[in-house]
Design a protein that fits this description.
The chain contains 2 helices and no strands. The chain is mainly alpha-helical and 117 residues long. Helix 1 packs antiparallel against helix 2. The longest helix is centred in the middle third of the chain and has 71 residues. It is rod-shaped and about 100 Å long. The model has no long low-confidence stretch (mean pLDDT 89).
Length: 117
């Protein structure tokens, strides 16, 4: 009985120490996750601002170029280069729009994760 008591006491002490270290590790991971979410949110918001301003400029360019090309088409003076440039600008506008939508959804998802806490 005398040999079992110190072993039992040692096991209890080790168990309580391990439990504290696990809790500390869990708290560290939670803090790291929060920091990671905050940095991802900030990066996404900064990129969204850039993509948004670029998208607005490209939309304006596309609208003016489309109007010009439509006038040339009506007068049967549209060149293949002009049509190709318009198509490429539309593709650029569409890719920016897709990136804009993806960033908005990413920001929305991060906000949802942060609100679950």
């Amino acid at each position: 009985m005398k040999t079992i008591l110190p072993l039992l006491l040692a096991a209890i002490l080790l168990g309580s120490c391990a439990d504290r270290s696990r809790r500390a590790e869990i708290e560290q991971r939670r803090a790291a996750l929060t920091a990671r979410q905050d940095s991802a949110l900030l990066a996404s918001q900064q990129e969204l601002a850039i993509v948004d301003s670029t998208l607005e400029v490209v939309k304006q360019q596309y609208a003016s170029m489309q109007q010009e090309v439509e006038q040339h088409k009506a007068a049967l003076k549209a060149t293949p280069e002009e049509l190709t440039a318009l198509t490429r600008l539309r593709m650029h506008r569409d890719s920016l729009q897709v990136r804009f939508d993806a960033l908005c959804n990413q920001i929305k998802y991060i906000h949802q994760l942060q609100n679950k806490k």
